[in-house]
Design brief:
The chain is mainly α. It is built from 16 helices and two strands.
Length: 397
């Protein structure tokens, strides 16, 4: 993509996001629904104005990082830790049932054991971005239910990515050991605990120092760099002295969320929160519009014979994805917490599910047709969740 085409594409994406977001909001829905629908319309299966290029995908990834960072800053760390136990339990249940359901559905439709395991792994993911955006739009981000969902989404990404890494190695190498499974899980958990522990110690004095600097933007730039650093550490392969090569293997968005959580305890929290909004307004819509543009409407044409089996499998996988996550909300036994709201909040797969499916296709673990079915399920869960969440939150009052 040359630079002039990039400029035009960004103009199309941003105008589409704001136009369809406004329409959705005037219709009483979350703007994210409008952004996703707008993405479908300008995507390759309709107008073809937005293409899934490497540059646009990178900009969308920055948008996802900023979204999760902003959500993290808005979340109170100590409140987040209070619901950590429930979040862990919800995550465990929310991984187990979708995985089992997806595995047996894939077997029923003729996939072999390894490929069925991988398809089950795709269903384990939870997109915290979609749910967090809806909670934020409705002013319910500080509720117990929202904090449990945010915590559970991070934990089940750790579990899901561990499953994904193991299955990928199983397919590519033909075998996997218990030691490698334990190592992947331990490194991921150590990153979450270690980043919180170290971050809480260094962030307050660091940002007190940055606030004393006279140059404009020092606090916000420092916060943004902190976010990018944790995103990098979470996802990149690093060569470290003594330790050697280290790869934590988490998605960058997990590191961004942890960075936001850490900075939520600093005195500069409100300033950072205010400064991040205009930057997010530019990059976050790129993420949601691109997600919508990835939908291939041709897959949903029932008159094409080759699509019938794919549509049937997608339908049952969608039910598995929906029911499996809703069950997870009932792992919370506190009668003062809306269990259905938590379960529905865990439903969308969004960017995390797409990452899983894309890795499967890139490594030839799943076929193009199975990938299409998986993407259809991911997008369906992403579309229906905001409507369901809004209805439940309004009903709760």
């Amino acid at each position: 993509m040359d630079f002039s085409n990039l400029i035009i594409t960004l103009i199309v994406i941003l105008i589409t996001a704001k136009l369809f977001g406004e329409i959705a909001q005037r219709a009483g829905h979350s703007p994210v629904i409008g952004e996703l629908i707008g993405g479908v319309i300008v995507g390759g299966s309709v107008l073809g104005l937005v293409q899934d290029t490497a540059v646009i995908r990178d900009l969308a990834e920055i948008g996802a990082i900023l979204l999760l960072f902003e959500i993290g800053v808005q979340t109170n760390l100590y409140d987040f830790l209070k619901v950590g136990g429930w979040g862990f339990l919800v995550a465990m249940v929310g991984v187990f049932f979708p995985f089992i359901f997806g595995y047996y559905i894939a077997l029923y439709f003729g996939l072999d054991t390894v490929h069925s395991i991988f398809l089950g792994a795709i269903l384990t993911a939870t997109s915290v971005g979609i749910t967090a955006r809806v909670f934020s739009d409705l002013g319910k981000l500080a509720s117990k239910e929202a904090r449990i969902v945010l915590g559970a989404a991070v934990i089940d990404d750790v579990i899901g990515l561990a499953i994904l890494a193991v299955v990928t190695k199983l397919v590519l190498n033909g075998a996997v050991s218990f030691v490698s499974i334990a190592k992947i899980t331990f490194i991921a958990a150590a990153f979450l605990a270690g980043s919180l522990l170290i971050g809480v110690m260094i962030a307050p004095p660091l940002f007190t120092f940055l606030k004393k600097m006279h140059i404009r933007g020092s606090v916000f730039v420092g916060a943004f760099c902190f976010c990018l650093l944790l995103s990098y550490i979470a996802s990149a392969e690093m060569a470290l002295p003594v330790i050697g090569t280290l790869r934590i293997g988490l998605a960058p968005i997990v590191g961004a969320f942890m960075a936001g959580i850490i900075l939520s305890i600093t005195k500069e929290k409100e300033f950072i929160e205010a400064q991040i909004k205009p930057v997010s307004d530019i990059f976050v819509p790129v993420f949601f519009v691109l997600m919508g543009s990835l939908v291939d409407l041709k897959v949903f044409n029932p008159f094409v014979q080759s699509n019938v089996l794919i549509l049937q499998m997608a339908f049952w996988l969608f039910l598995a994805a929906l029911i499996g996550k809703i069950i997870s909300g009932y792992a919370v036994v506190d009668k003062n917490i809306n269990k259905l709201l938590i379960g529905v909040g865990m439903v969308p797969r969004g960017e995390v599910g797409l990452i899983f499916a894309g890795m499967g296709l890139a490594n030839q673990i799943i076929s193009q047709s199975v990938y299409s079915a998986a993407v259809a399920v991911i997008m369906a869960t992403t579309f229906v969740t905001p409507f369901m969440l809004k209805m439940l939150i309004k009903k709760k009052g």
